[in-house]
Amino acid sequence: MLAAYASGNEIRIAVADRLAPLLDDLAAAYAEDPIGIGYLLAAHAAHVEALDFARCSPDMPEYERCMRAAQADATREALLDELPSAPTVDARLTPDDAITYATRLTRLAAAARLAPNRNPR
């Protein structure tokens, strides 16, 4: 299950434990084929930058944003396909676990809302 905890006046959802195996697999794939994985990473970085530009540009047409999102998704999928094991990044919860998690998040959010503002923005 995902870990969540209150941190001052916000709720933090810990994802490092879920990302560590993904990064380990990426490092292993890069060690096996640094040129191929390097090209995929460079292509993905370029597509992510193009998508970020499209999202931030007020006059960018919606179809252009969609095309750039599809390109970033495609290179992300290509990178995931190169990993030695099939990563499970998405959290999978049973209905009971989802209800328990939602209840815990609600309690943490209520406590954070009532906490004094420790991090003024």
* Cα radius of gyration in angstroms: 19 Å
The computed structural class is: mainly alpha
Distance between the termini: 31 Å
Unreliably modeled segments: none
Total number of β-strand segments? 2
Overall morphology: extended
Number of helices: 4
- List SSEs in N-to-C order: EEHHHH
Strand content: 5-15%
Protein architecture, described:
The radius of gyration is 19 Å and the shape is extended. A two-stranded antiparallel sheet has the order 1-2. α2 runs antiparallel to α3 (62-82). The chain has 121 residues and is mainly alpha-helical. It is built from 4 helices and 2 strands.
What topology does this entry show?
Elements lengths: L2 E5 L2 E5 L1 H17 L1 H23 L5 H21 L12 H20 L7
Antiparallel strand pairs: 1-2
Helix pairs in contact: 1-2, 2-3
Question: What is the compact description of this entry?
Answer:
The chain is mainly alpha-helical and 121 residues long. The protein contains 4 helices and 2 strands. The radius of gyration is 19 Å and the shape is extended.
What features would you highlight for this structure?
mainly alpha; 121 residues; 4 helices
